[in-house]
Predict the structure.
Amino acid sequence: MSDNGSLSRLLAGGRHNRLLIAGQTPPSLCLPDLTHFERIAWIARPGQPGAGAIVADPVRLPFVEALFDRALVTTPLPPDSAHAELRELWRVLSPASLALLIIKARRAWQFQAPGWTQDALAPLLGDAMFETLDWQVETLPQRQHLILVGKRDGLSPAMIGRVEETIVPALAP
């Protein structure tokens, strides 16, 4: 990997952070020492177990809401369940959390090739309530999108009650 700024940003933080790793990391992506994390959970898709991984359906993760502060996701993102998988990831991330998504990339003219173009993936991330913070395309050894996203809570300030015009008398000099 030529630039690991997104990975460094993802893995930075205090010792009270909880990390979710979904899938196997590419061989060229060297993870640093992760002992500063309070907890680390590693999950794998059914049929693709890894040593020490929890096998879980990516649409129904076995975790409570807002459990993880960071996520490293390297599992495939099938088009038929992509939105549901991203929303489930959003559910288990705490507010103001970060996730690094490593997703197979394809070029726009490769219509039948597996993977995602940036034009197809960007609106999907927005619909799943993620804010894109950094986007790179790397070769790890295959062409991959490395997308650092933040969780958007979808909340906006709201006025409660009725707002009336207030007339402030002019101050006398």
